[in-house]
Specification:
The structure is a homodimer.
Chain A (H helix, E strand, L loop, with lengths): L3 E2 L9 H5 L11 H17 L6 E6 L5 H10 L3 E6 L2 H12 L3 E6 L8 H10 L4 E5 L1 E2 L4 E2 L2 H11 L4 E5 L11 H4 L3 E5 L11 E6 H9 L9 H11 L8 H17 L1 H22 L1 E2 L10 E5 L6 H10 L2 E2 L1 E2 L8 E5 L6 H15 L4
Parallel strand pairs in A: 1-13, 3-4, 3-5, 5-8, 8-9
Antiparallel strand pairs in A: 2-10, 6-7, 9-10, 11-12, 12-15, 14-15
């Protein structure tokens, strides 16, 4: 039996979804491909309720490519980057490494970034872009992107809002136009629950206009090219990962059946159960009220060995994740997203209780 | 029955290879992943006979990402780009779009770029990088990369040589250190005969040293990060496409069994048969002596309808490709690479003879 993944990505992929990948190849300039790809785009638009001034695309890459896309195609001169974990820090560093100026708005790891903190910074200097993580996979913190989006659109309408959702998208509510963000992206190995190798991105029309003004966007990192090519040909500009597009098409059909609200409620239920369990035996690493609903980061208050736990979980065909980087043994993380449901989460937490002898 | 692909990519992928993709996911920071990935890297090193001062990597992307990697991480100020087809023109344009200076050394489409043409340009101005395509997929021309590499290394040793091999690698001889190039790359949907979604790249140690001096390399396009991460962790810096790595591992095992020379001879035999057929009924688009051994571009001297041919081939479960861009009806292209062997090519050409009523 294989090890079922409760790590924050890659998440568990069902045998059914894996089998979607075995269909034979088709030409990526063929009618069959256009049908497949436009079908996916339409389903993405429906599930994420995109109005006419938003567009969707799929890139053949890790989600990380979109850090470069933001750095190369969106930031003109200077970005404000909210950094409250490993991934948001990396987002800012990537923009800097694209040769753009970055100011970091830092919060302690485990704390959320609030609208008023952002307002203060945006009021004090000129920024053309705000970049942040929705779901900080390293700390289990969910930044309040709806409140942030609304405030920025209202008070600083010229600032483009770029959000890395990654492990949040699908499981958590991520409706781009309700958030009011200009670009939000995620990779497929998190809540989409298909293998890694694709990233999904949504953009506003106004950010595409901005991108046209940014020089030296490159080719693979050129946001304009991705969307212009789709407008003209209804295909991808570069040869895409066809097997994963088959799987994504199937996934979108299943998600639409379950509905955006249904998927959210399923994830919320798993999160609440996990958080309650964590608070009973340990403590949550995330600030109260800002807990992610897809990844729970547990403060290892009992000083248990996470490494040993995973060794024992392996015998039970399960795997969770240790803390990220310097939090390796101080925290551990449980990804409850994608294919998982409450029954599976209860089962997994029962195994941890049993291994560690935690009282019921 | 599915349509078997004789297009220049994606090429035909066998059911056996497609099935390699259905194994369950593993964590990309796990020991199992390290074993899988180092196994692939070792096999690549063996098949492509890399000496100690060359390294291999696999990226989760189309091959096109490597245009940006060259533009962002390798070219310091100015590149000379050999342009004799659609893909090499795009290579040069991509470097320009990364904000670097580019001079194009143009040859008519269908003609090869020769060492003396390059020598003349390199002697007349300062370039830090030479970029060219090995196998111009749009014209079926194979540039003499071994002769070019030797000349440049001897006469202009400070110039870095960047080669897009794409549809050439594996089928044609592509031994990086014998060529003397500093970076050569290809995507997996050509001669590797697995689906699109990964690119394979080989680099010299000296180009990694160069890359360290180039500012603003970005993150996903940062050559240094890819190789430093591997040195330190034996993993990929970003979540990789695990299913395709399973397939690539299997492919490398099969290629090693067949041997580099064996694979080359199989492709050479297919190319010679196809070229002979093309010359008997039509003419070759590529300059004599510079014909690709993986893609034959046929001059449509009889003015046949390629579109109609493909419609009829579809009934026979086959697909070839029309000409590229403005050559759409003036040429047609047959990709004879990857899973194909002489028997299959004979069969396919027999179908074309039969449909068009060409005399035997």
């Amino acid at each position: 039996m294989h090890k079922r993944l409760l790590i924050p990505g890659p998440t568990e992929v069902s045998a059914e979804m894996l089998r979607e990948q075995v269909r034979f190849m088709i030409g990526h300039r063929s009618k069959e491909f256009t049908e497949l790809y436009t079908g996916i785009i339409e389903k993405l638009k429906r599930f994420f309720q995109l109005p006419n001034d938003y567009k969707a695309a799929v890139t053949t890459s890790s989600g990380t490519l979109w850090f470069d896309i933001v750095g190369r195609s969106i930031v003109k001169e200077k970005a404000l980057v909210c950094a409250n974990g490993a991934f948001s820090e990396r987002f800012g560093k990537a923009i800097e490494d694209c040769g753009k100026k970055v100011d970091f708005l830092k919060a302690e790891w485990g704390k959320a970034i609030k609208p008023d903190m952002i307002a203060e910074k945006l009021g004090s200097e000129e920024y053309d872009t705000l970049a942040l993580c929705h779901n900080e996979t390293s700390t289990g913190v969910r930044n309040p992107i709806y409140e942030i989006g609304k405030m920025v659109r209202r008070e600083y309408p010229s600032v483009m809002i770029a959000i890395d959702s990654i492990s949040g998208m699908v499981g958590d509510k991520t409706l781009p136009s309700e958030i009011g963000c200009d670009v939000i992206f995620a990779s497929t190995q998190k809540c989409f629950a298909i293998p890694p190798g694709l990233a999904v991105g949504f953009v506003s029309d106004r950010i595409l206009e901005r991108a046209r003004e940014v020089p030296n966007r490159g080719l693979y990192t050129n946001l304009v090219r991705i969307f212009d090519y789709y407008e003209k040909k209804h295909q991808t500009p570069f040869t895409p990962n066809i097997p994963l597009l088959y799987a994504l098409d199937k996934r979108m059909r299943l998600l639409l059946e379950e509905t955006h609200e249904g998927v959210y409620q399923r994830h919320k239920t798993m999160a609440e159960y996990t958080q309650k369990w964590a608070k009973k035996h340990f403590a949550l690493f995330a600030e109260s009220g800002y807990e992610s609903i897809t990844v729970t980061c547990v403060k290892n208050t009992l000083g248990k060995s996470v490494k040993e736990l995973n060794e024992k979980l392996e015998e039970r065909h399960l795997m969770i994740s240790n803390g990220y980087g310097r939090l390796a043994e101080q925290t551990f993380r449980i990804g409850h997203m994608g294919e998982w449901d409450l029954a599976g989460i209860k089962e997994a937490l029962w195994h941890i209780d049993d291994i560690w002898g935690l009282e019921k």
